[in-house]
Amino acid sequence: MPKENATPTEKSLQEQFEQLKKEVSNIHSTLNDLGSEKLTAAKGKAEKLYASAKENGEEAISQAKEKIGDVQGQLCNCIREKPIASLAAAAGVGFILALLMRR
């Protein structure tokens, strides 16, 4: 507020200063609003990305389980059809692993 005993130039400068303070306050308020909007938008994008990644991860796990089930079924069928060859192969793999573990 302008002082009562100030010169007209001082009063004018004080009025200009008060107007500048109001404008800076308005700019500050506008920037805060924009920052809040950007933060909200970024949060929304992050949530969508998380949901998408979670969905893709669950789908990949489901596919992996399906593949493992298929391989397990094929392995069981192979063992049933050729039990002696399967036993020999398992013994050979075990022997090789035992040699590697000694080193």
Automatic annotation (TrEMBL):
Taxonomic path: Bacteria, Pseudomonadati, Pseudomonadota, Alphaproteobacteria, Hyphomicrobiales
- Put simply, this protein is called Membrane-anchored ribosome-binding protein
Transmembrane domains' residue ranges: 84-101
Name the keywords, alphabetized: Membrane, Transmembrane, Transmembrane helix
